Amino acid sequence: QVQLVESGGGTVQTGGSLKLSCAASVSSTSIFAMGWFRQAPGKQREYVASSTLGVGADYADSVKGRFTISRDNAKNTVYLQMNTLKPEDTAIYYCKASFAGIWSSGYWGQGAQVTVSS
User: How far apart, in whole angstroms, are the C-alpha atoms of residue 82 and residue 22?
Assistant: First the structure.
C-alpha cells in the first residue's frame, strides 16, 4: 500500500506559476512510475506528466515546455513545476504512483485544486 499526500495547489493569475508536491509513504526509488493527471469540471481525467525509472520524463502536448516534473528521492517526493499557467490549466491535479507503469494500476493522491484566473 502506498499513500500519496499532495500539496501546493492554489489560485494564480494567468501567466503565473505554481509548484505541486506529492510525498509518498514508501521509498520513491522503488516506485517505477510517478506522475500527474488532472480533471477539470465536467471533463474526464487527463494525463499531464510522468517520471519513469530508466526512461525519464514525459509530458502531454498541452503542457510541454511549460511544466516540469521532477523527483527528489531523498524526500520520496515528486514535483510538478507549472509555469506560464493558462485558465485552461484549471483543474484538480492528482498524483499517481505505480510499480508497473503510469498507465497501469496504481495509487492516487487526494487531489490538489489549481485555479488560474484570467
Answer: 14
Hey, what's the cell of 43?
471533463
Supply 10's cell numbers: 492554489
Q: How confident is the model at residue 21 (pLDDT cuts 50, 70, 90)?
A: very high
pLDDT at 28 over 90: no
- Under 8 Å between Cβ of 111 and 91: no
Q: First vs last Cα of the chain: how many Å apart? A: 40
Give me the half-sphere count of Cα atoms (radius 13 Å) on the Cβ side of residue 9.
20
Asked if residue 39 lies in contact with residue 91, where contact means CB atoms within 8 angstroms, the answer is: yes
